[in-house]
TrEMBL record:
Keyword Transmembrane helix: yes
Signal peptide: none
Keyword set includes Protease: yes
Taxon lineage: Eukaryota, Viridiplantae, Streptophyta, Embryophyta, Tracheophyta
Domain of life: Eukaryota
Gene encoding the protein: LOC111289424
Record protein name field: Signal peptide peptidase-like 1
Assigned keywords, A-Z: Hydrolase, Membrane, Protease, Transmembrane, Transmembrane helix
Family membership noted in the UniProt record: Belongs to the peptidase A22B family.
UniProt xrefs under Pfam families: Peptidase_A22B
GO biological process, one term: signal peptide processing
Molecular-function GO term, any one: aspartic endopeptidase activity, intramembrane cleaving
Length: 371
């Protein structure tokens, strides 16, 4: 009975905010992937920036992820500054990708003239896009200086959305293969890695803080204001929330003071949601927008997968509370998202179509980019 009382912690602000944020990001990532697919159909130049996973690539993801885990487990202190610099560049690009459609919408709403002013890296930039890029750079710079968890979450969310939009799945067969492999991967590295490596590799890597290259440069140059720059920084490969959320935990607090969820625990289920969302769109061919979601005949599968994701995430948090140990979130998220989609599609006799995916038009390269 005492253990059940502990579950009341799930009603506190930190876990509630984490669950709501994760569900919103997962759905938002899938919806952005759908819209980006439409953009690729209209603009064939964008298709080169997206990749559709085949069987071998899907199988390589857990293998490469395992190699990356071991690299960071043994050599994190040596490569942390390089990882921070790479993450900063990826964060600028991802944040720009996420905000660009909203800025373009506002520009069209207000009828702003915005001529092309320059080209960089074979891409044309307008004045407004240049200002947006500058704002993204300043946001990442603020994160590098402060290391604040809110900025960390903002950048992590943008990376998740950009990843799901650019890395796509062609059908449920490849999706199921990827999810099952990552299901095993997550269980092994959380539950069994300590037996082989002397420590929980997943937890050790997830809770490590990287050295801040900005602090290193400022220190070597003896720049003023050095004390304002955080020496260690959380990389935006996870979203974090202070356990005492309303109490205003300090940015430099211990990792034990934060609840965290890896980006993979949002991005991987979001790839499934993107797949079924685009499947429903292809079936219905109805215009989809945020104001018409409930009236659209499409999106039927996502309304089974999305609640399943929420249930799986809450179950993972509850298991962590009851067992007092870290839990592999995909242990709960894979069955709770993939299971309903496969079962409902079987009932509706659409499993075969979802399993193999739609046949692309070979005369149109843009339509070979399947979600």
């Amino acid at each position: 009975m005492e253990s059940l009382w502990k579950l009341l912690f799930l009603l506190e602000p930190a876990p509630v905010t984490l669950v709501v944020t994760a569900v919103a990001v997962t759905f938002g990532s899938a919806f952005r992937a759908l819209n980006y697919g439409k953009e690729m159909e209209r603009n064939h130049d964008l298709s080169g920036a997206s990749i559709t996973l085949d069987r071998s690539q899907a199988l390589m993801i857990p293998i490469m992820s395992s190699c990356s885990l071991l690299l960071m487990f043994y050599l994190f202190s040596s490569v942390s500054q390089l990882l921070t610099a790479f993450t900063a560049i990826a964060s600028v690009s991802s944040l720009f990708f996420c905000l660009s459609p909203h800025v373009a919408h506002l520009k069209s709403q207000f009828g702003l003239a915005d001529p092309f002013v320059s080209r960089c890296c074979s891409k044309s930039f307008t004045r407004i896009q240049g200002l947006l890029l500058l704002a993204c750079i300043l946001t990442v710079a603020a994160w590098l200086v402060s290391g604040h968890w809110i900025l960390n979450n903002l950048l992590g969310i943008s990376i998740c959305i950009a990843f799901v939009s650019h890395v796509r799945l062609p059908n449920i067969k490849i999706c199921a293969m990827l999810l099952v492999c990552l299901f095993v991967y997550d269980i092994f590295w959380v539950f069994f890695s300590e037996r082989f490596f002397g420590a929980n590799v997943m937890v050790s890597v997830a809770t490590q803080q990287a050295s801040n290259p900005v602090h290193t440069v400022a220190n070597s140059l003896s720049l003023p204001g050095l004390q304002l720059i955080t020496k260690k920084i959380e990389l935006p490969v996870k979203i974090v929330f202070p356990r005492n959320l309303l109490g205003g935990a300090s940015p430099g607090g211990s990792t034990a003071d934060f609840m965290m969820l890896g980006l993979g625990d949002m991005a991987i289920p979001a790839m499934l949601l993107a797949l079924v969302l685009c499947f429903d769109h292809r079936k219905s061919r109805e215009t989809v927008n945020l104001l018409d979601l409930h009236s659209s005949k499409g999106h039927k599968y996502i309304w089974y997968a999305l609640p399943g994701y929420a249930i799986g995430l809450v179950t993972a948090l509850a298991a962590g509370i009851l067992t007092h140990s870290p839990q592999p979130a995909l242990l709960y998220l894979v069955p709770s998202t993939l299971g309903p989609v496969i079962f409902i599609s079987w009932l509706r006799k659409e499993l075969a179509e979802l399993w193999e995916g739609s046949t692309p038009n070979l005369n149109d390269k843009a339509r070979q980019i399947e979600v």
